[in-house]
Structures are given as C-alpha cells and as structure tokens.
Amino acid sequence: MASGNTNLETATALDTAALVRSGQISAVEACEAAIERIEAKNGPLNAVVVKDYDRARAAAKAVDESRTADDARPFLGVPMTVKEANDVAGLPTTWGFEMFANFQPQEDSPPIARLKAAGAVILGKTNVPVALADWQSVNPVYGRTVNPYDHSRTPGGSSGGSAAALASGMVPLELGSDIGGSIRFPSDFCGVWGHKPTYGIVPLKGHNVPGTDGVDVPLAVVGPMARSAADLKAALEVVAGPLNTGWKLDLPAARHSSLKAFRVLVLSADDMPPVDDEVAAPIETLAGALEKLGATVIRKVHGLPDFASVHEDYLRLLNTAIMRGTPDARPIDAHTYMNLLDAQLNLQRQWANFFRDIDLVLSPAFSTAAFPHTDEPDWSKRSVIVNGQAVPYATQLMWAGLATFPGLPSTAVPLARTSEGLPTGMQVVGNLYEDRTTLAFAEFLQAEGLSA
C-alpha cells in the first residue's frame, strides 16, 4: 500500500507515475511492490515467464536518482512487463519455439526503448502461443497461461500472458501485438483495455521471428494494453512515431470532446459470425446509455463493405504474412500479392467514405467470453459455443479482420461479466489514423462509468 492509501495493485500506470513524480513513493518501492505481486500471483497463472528483477531494480534506482519535481516522463518509475515477442536486450525472444529457447537479442525494440526513455521499468516478459498463432497462450518453452477469472479457460492469445498479468494486478501496463486479434481478444477475455493502432504508426522493428530482420510484416501492429483507457492513450503517444528523422507522425485530434457528440454504428451484419447473447447484450445496453446521453446511435446503415468477400482477401494476406518461410507456406505470386494490396486500399477508401457520416463502429471483439483450453491442433476441428451451438473456431478471425485488413485503429473496451463471471467487452473501430478518436471515446466511457 502506497502513501495516501493508493493501492498499487489497482493503480493505473499514470497514477503510479504521479506518485513517483511527487515523491510519495520511490520508483524502487513501486518496483519491489510489483515484484512481490508477481511472486505472489504468478504461480498458478503462469503469465510472467521471463523475469528480469535485478536489472529492473537498477533501472528503478536510476529513475529515483534522476527524478525531478516536474519530471516530464509520462511513465516515471512505472513497473511493467512486455509480450515475449518484443525484443528486450539480454532477454530471450522465442515466440514459443523450442529451437529459439536460447536466442537473446542484443538490442531493445524501438517501442521498448521509447518506454524505457519515458521512465518505465521493465520487469520481464509475458507468455505467448507458438508462433503467436493462437487465441490461447501455451508453448513448449514456457507452458500454459490461464485466465485469472477461470483457470480452466484461455486468457486469449497471442498477448494472453500480457492480459493475464494486467487482470491479476501484477502490473499496470503491457506492450502487446496484434495481427489476428492478438491484443483485442485477450483484452476482451480478461477484462482489460487494449489498443490495436493504425497499421504502421508504431515501429515493428524488434518484433520479428527470432533471428530475422526484414520489411515490416503486413497487417501486424504493436500496441499497448492497460487497466485504463488513459494509460492506453499515453502509451501510444510514447511508442508511436517513425524511426527515420525525415518523417513525422501527426495524428489528428479526437473528433469530439464529449460522448453526446459521437455518431456510432452498432455493427449488426448478416455476414458476420453469430454472437453470444451475453456478449451482445452489454453492447446493446451501452448503446441505450449513449442514446440517453444524446449520442447518435445507428444500428443499420447502407454502404458497409461486403464483409464475406473482404474476409477472403484478409485471410489470403494474413496467411501469406504469417506462413512466410515456414514448411507449410503456400507462396503467392507478386501480382496476386499486389492485387491484395489494391483490395486493401479500396477497402480503406470505402471506410474513409463511410466515416464521413459516422465517427466510430462498435462491434464484438469475439463472439463469446473466454473459452475452455483445448489441445486440438487442427483449427478445423475446433469450435466455440455460441448460445449453445458450435461455431467454427476460425470464424472469429472476421472480428479481427474488421480492423486489421484495412489497417484501422481498434480499442478493446471491457463492458460486463457473464453469468459465470467472465469478462466481456467490445472493440471500438475508427478511421485510418484516427487512433485518438477511438481512445478518447474509450476514456469518456470509463469516465462515465459505462465500462467494466
């Protein structure tokens, strides 16, 4: 317990930084408290799989020695963990592959370096599935991570360890990544906040298959996860921006300054996967609350993309990106690849036209709450249960692709709990480069008490 009766287990990252900045607690105290929480909670969860306590203590001490009363570092002394796939100098990056168990990069990824420069203290790394390719987080190097709300269920993936560490109170801030729902799905399953940025605004360097270095992976993004929307916004401001000095990122301001000004579409499309009632109901409840506040809520609209057709393009580009270099890869020719990029550009134009009259799209992040662990390796033999009916597992990629294929920003917002006590939420999708609008909307929801 910190001075002023602030509980560091529930404090946000920005609140923790404010305590350190004011001198109410030291960075070393914040660090030690987080280490104690990890040691007390991590055993059954197996979320934090790489621990770097000695260097964390040294980094916290350096923050204390350099701290000033008006220190501008936004995450001053904030203890955090990061998804295992993000390179941290001197720590393993395995992506869950046994063959890479001893691989240690010698350089921080740019987002990690930026978080450290912003005052954050890295305590270690959190678990992932093999190749970051599942909505569970289990691999032969580190084992299985479980959901803090129900250990028989997944915390999500591939940033499942990240979400579990946040939800259990170990740390207030995390850095995840997303190509097929990997930030949004775990956030949804564990009742935390996550942001999939607009494609390209956060450097992907240092988030490569171990030992490789090349062009940025199509569709993939690195982004923040946290226990508050304000932390997401602050973290994005830290990690976003180009590597080359000749370019500058200039994201537009949020469209509105209050909830009542927003025009939102509650997505209900016939060609999207069916949604469990316990997921759909809280979104509809929120829509009603928004209407009472004066916001414009739309449930049917013309001009939406043909989601079934778009999904096929997304899958082709996704499989090309994630299977590259693997024995099971099915290469496509250059012209087919360029045609997919044309389809992506056309979709971005469709959305840009749509977002002239609508500010945001609210949709499920996943059709159900967290599902039970499964060891079935064949996705075609897996299913999720929606209102008592089995639905093919891979259909959930449609919710991911909604924002991923066009590269749009999407913020995961926790909303409620199911009858079994499992978190549910939604994703808030905005137009290209309008990350500040989705994040502002999420902040307003939290401020109004409309989120979980």
Q: Which range best describes the helical content: under 10%, 10-25%, 25-40%, 40-55%, 55-70% or over 70%?
A: 25-40%
User: Class by helix and strand content?
Assistant: alpha/beta
Number of strands: 15
- Secondary-structure element order, N to C: HHEHEHEEEHEHEEHEHEHHEEEHEEH
What form results from the Cα inertia axes? globular
Strands of the widest sheet, in order across it, are 1-3-2-6-8-7-14-15-11-9-10
> How much is the radius of gyration in Å?
21 Å
The termini sit apart by 23 Å
Q: Low-confidence spans: pLDDT under 50, at least 5 residues?
A: 1-5
Q: Major beta sheet, specifics?
A: 11 strands, mixed
The number of helical segments is 12
Explained architecture:
This protein is α/β, with parallel strands linked by helices and 452 residues long. It contains twelve helices and 15 strands. It has helices spanning 13-22, 27-45, 53-66, 110-117, 160-167, 184-190, 229-239, 277-293, 307-323, 334-354, 397-404, 435-447, and strands at residues 48-51, 79-83, 121-126, 138-139, 143-144, 173-178, 193-196, 221-226, 263-266, 296-298, 360-363, 383-386, 389-392, 410-417, 423-429. The radius of gyration is 21 Å and the shape is globular. It starts with 12 loop residues before the first helix and ends in a 5-residue tail after the last helix.
